[in-house]
């Protein structure tokens, strides 16, 4: 983040801290159908998740030509492939013969992609390279048998994917600079394009895909849900929120920020006295922690189930055991708090069908979740109830 922007944000924070106040928006109701209705879920998947880039993995995970990653994203089997010239491409992990998956889930290194069923083979650019008894397939010329494509791009040290099969005439290139907007400039300024993964984790979460974002777009819960982990570091129920289109940025000042009042603003460094949440709509959450970042994306599987893919990015890989232990401690601290959040989200999902609530109640400092829901519903063509 540019220094003048840091100063503006810190001044906002100091004024609120001094007044014991918070920014506030509208209080809202959130109907339980948002988390239970399969038809609504399908609209969200089609119009929101399958139309926008979401972060999948670190670019460094696919560093060399031939590196591939097979991964299911929101129900679509995707194959990410680093080509001979260094370009990253996305394909559907489905053979054009009879649909077998070309590669099992996980990482591989390949010069050619060979289907395990009847051995149709594909180059790293997805074109058909060969097939046994080719003369029997005059009705399926090679030019029509390239792998189906998926749009991918790289930015902020991450691979981003739109999990939708492209039509033959559609571009597979994502304009991530335009999509990620001005908040990505903050992260570029901190060097994210060169940051590398220290830790990765993926797990199934028994809750609607939107619930983890609701939980991470407010600080109202900090003093209670995180009383034994991060609560002492942060102020109670303090919201300092900005948005850029449907993307959001939340500043979480640490208690140490108050000491900046006595310092020359030219020396202020926001990263030492806060965490900053970057929520790139629709499903990528980045927690900037000054000198590193923890992030996760949520991939819907069903109305009440998702896959979470999480990454810790650091400026450079640790060279010593001491450095490794330092980052390990940071990862453990992050997941100490995030496991509490995910568990509570699952708890909330588990009561939805009980009939106890027709709506959930979002207070005025929980308005960032309401902004998120409004964007989802606008794009899905759903009414906000
Ligand atoms: S399904 Fe792939 S070669 Fe037959
Ligand atoms: Fe939390």
Can you walk me through this structure?
The protein is α+β, with helices and mostly antiparallel strands. The protein has helices at residues 3-19, 33-36, 38-47, 176-189, 211-216, 222-225, 321-351, 367-380; strands at residues 28-31, 54-58, 67-73, 76-82, 88-92, 106-109, 113-114, 121-122, 128-130, 149-155, 158-165, 196-205, 241-244, 247-253, 274-280, 284-288, 293-302, 305-314, 359-362. The protein has two domains: 3-50 and 181-380, Naphthalene 1,2-dioxygenase Alpha Subunit, Chain A, domain 1 (Alpha-Beta Complex); 54-173, Rieske Iron-sulfur Protein (3-layer Sandwich), CATH 2.102.10. It contains eight helices and 19 strands. It has a seven-stranded antiparallel β-sheet, with no helix packed on it. It has a seven-stranded antiparallel β-sheet with strand order 12-18-17-16-15-14-13. The model has no long low-confidence stretch (mean pLDDT 96). The structure holds FE2/S2 (inorganic) cluster and fe (ii) ion. The site of fe (ii) ion (FE2) has 6 residues, from helix 7. FE2/S2 (inorganic) cluster is lined by residues 95, 97-100, 115, 117-120.
């Amino acid at each position: 983040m540019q220094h003048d922007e840091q100063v503006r944000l810190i001044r906002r924070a100091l004024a609120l801290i001094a007044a014991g106040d918070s920014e506030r928006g509208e209080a809202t109701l959130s109907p339980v159908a948002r988390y239970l209705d399969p038809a609504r879920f399908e609209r969200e998947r089609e119009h929101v998740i399958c139309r926008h880039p979401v972060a999948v993995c670190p670019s460094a995970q696919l560093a060399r030509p031939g590196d591939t990653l097979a991964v299911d994203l929101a129900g679509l089997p995707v194959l990410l492939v680093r080509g001979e010239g260094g370009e990253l491409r996305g394909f559907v992990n489905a053979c054009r013969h009879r649909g077998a998956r070309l590669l099992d889930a996980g990482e591989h290194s390949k010069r050619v992609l060979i289907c395990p069923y009847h051995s149709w083979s594909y180059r790293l650019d997805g074109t058909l390279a060969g097939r046994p008894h080719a003369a029997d397939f005059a009705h399926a010329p090679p030019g029509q048998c390239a792998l189906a494509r998926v749009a991918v791009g790289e930015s902020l040290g991450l691979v981003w994917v739109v999990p939708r099969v492209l039509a033959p005439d559609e571009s597979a290139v994502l304009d991530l600079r335009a999509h990620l907007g001005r908040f990505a400039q903050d992260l570029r300024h901190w060097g994210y394009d060169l940051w590398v993964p220290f830790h990765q984790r993926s797990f199934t979460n028994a809750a609607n895909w939107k619930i983890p974002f609701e939980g991470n777009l407010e600080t109202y819960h900090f003093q209670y849900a995180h009383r034994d982990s991060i609560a002492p570091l942060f102020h109670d129920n303090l919201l300092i929120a900005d948005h850029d289109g449907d993307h959001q940025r939340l500043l979480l000042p640490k208690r140490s920020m108050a000491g900046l009042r006595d310092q020359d603003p030219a020396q202020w460094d926001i990263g030492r006295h806060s965490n900053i949440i970057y929520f790139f709509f629709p499903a990528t959450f980045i927690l900037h922690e000054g000198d590193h970042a923890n992030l996760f994306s949520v991939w819907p599987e069903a109305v009440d189930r998702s896959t979470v893919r999480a990454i810790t990015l650091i400026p450079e890989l640790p060279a010593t055991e001491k450095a490794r232990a330092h980052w390990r401690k940071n990862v453990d601290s992050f997941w100490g708090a995030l496991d509490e959040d995910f568990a509570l989200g699952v708890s909330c999902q588990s009561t939805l069908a009980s009939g106890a609530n027709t709506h959930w109640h979002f207070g005025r400092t929980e308005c960032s979740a309401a902004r998120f829901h409004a964007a989802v519903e606008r794009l899905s063509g759903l009414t906000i109830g």
